[in-house]
Design goal:
Helices cover about 40% and strands about 10% of the residues. It contains ten helices and eight strands. The protein has helices at about 20-30, 35, 50, 60-75, 90-110, 140-150, 165-175, 220-235, 265-280, 295-310, and strands spanning about 80, 85, 115-120, 155-160, 180-185, 210-215, 240-245, 285-290. The protein has a six-stranded parallel β-sheet with strand order 3-8-7-4-5-6, with helices on both faces. Strands 1-2 form a two-stranded antiparallel sheet. The model has no long low-confidence stretch (mean pLDDT about 95).
């Protein structure tokens, strides 16, 4: 986690607000000492703009930077769309968030950690190459994937379990055979993409896999769908790394979702991913996406960390 992430101000009443990270940190601190013995906090450097330009257009990067400068000049929040807000601190926060994801991926690739979690905001998986949307400024997981490939990695598998389809990540890699994108999400739901028929295009054909889930899908069906999708993905693609867009709005009672996972189900879900990664001789890193009930999101992150550390559910 980087302190700049907490300074991204979206204004009163916004779902993606400054209380999210403190709630998660409290949940981690309140968990058993066993978990804390397995967690090492690292404060990464912000990502370089050059790394963002591997997944975003220069115009998009310049727009976010200019909006943050305008917010600093006027003292007023700037809106990139009806949902996506930029404050004076948002440029630094966005660079820090992508930096957290990149550092987590680098640590795994270099063997400095067996698993990692990038606790960062603003989230990223809706950000397309040329557009901020859905609370997301830059696509953190995509930037991390491309950066770790630039660092020497080859094929990367991205799993997204946010309740909302990661349209931005899909768009960035839709024609890229070196990145496999697997998403489980509520459908139909925001942003309207993510049908099962969306399988990639060109050289990237068959390296996108969407698993649409109806609102109210029971946890057992949800987890079985993930197992089946991962098995199918690994028949089509041999990754060197697993990166995970971890969205806790897939949990029951989240104000922006209609799926029914409980915290213990999150442990089971992440364990399925970790086991699949291990079968492919890969390590797993997660980056925070959605989750808009802060206390429940904290519980979900704790269960994720326990699964990454090989600990039983709390």
């Amino acid at each position: 986690m980087h302190p700049a992430c907490g300074r991204h101000d979206t204004g009163w009443g916004h779902r993606e607000h400054q209380g999210r990270l403190p709630a998660i940190v409290r949940a981690i601190e309140q968990d058993t000492p066993m978990l804390l013995e397995h967690v090492v906090h690292v404060e990464p450097d912000p990502i370089e703009v050059e790394a963002l330009l591997r997944v975003h257009t220069a115009r998009h990067v310049d727009t976010v930077r200019a909006c943050a400068a305008e917010a600093a000049r006027t003292g007023e929040l700037q809106h990139l769309d009806s949902d996506t807000v930029v404050s004076a601190a948002s440029w630094d926060a966005a660079l820090a968030a992508a930096g957290c994801a990149w550092e987590a991926a680098r640590m795994l690739y270099d063997g400095d950690a067996d698993g990692a979690f990038a606790l960062a905001r603003p989230p990223g998986h809706h950000a397309t190459p040329d557009r901020a949307m859905g609370f997301c400024l830059f696509n953190n997981v995509a930037a991390a994937a491309r950066a770790v490939q630039h660092h020497g990695a080859g094929r990367v598998l991205i799993v997204d379990f946010d309740v909302h389809h990661g349209n931005g990540t899909q768009d960035i890699f839709y024609e890229d055979p070196s990145v496999y994108f697997l998403s489980l999400h509520q459908f139909p739901w925001y942003p309207g993409t993510g049908a099962a028929e969306e399988r990639g295009a060109g050289a990237g054909r068959s390296t996108t896999r969407n698993v649409p889930l109806a609102a109210g899908t029971d946890p057992a069906t949800h987890l079985r769908a993930l197992e089946d999708a991962l098995a199918a993905a690994l028949e089509e693609f041999t990754p060197e790394m697993f990166l995970v867009s971890a969205g806790y709005d897939c949990m029951a009672r989240d104000p922006l979702g209609g799926l029914l996972l409980e915290p213990r189900d999150i442990h089971a879900l992440v364990s399925i991913i970790v086991d699949a990664a291990a079968s492919a001789r890969c390590r797993t890193m997660c980056v925070l996406e959605g989750g808009y009930d802060p206390a429940r999101t904290g519980e979900g992150v704790v269960q994720t960390l326990r699964a990454l550390a090989g600990l039983p559910p709390a």
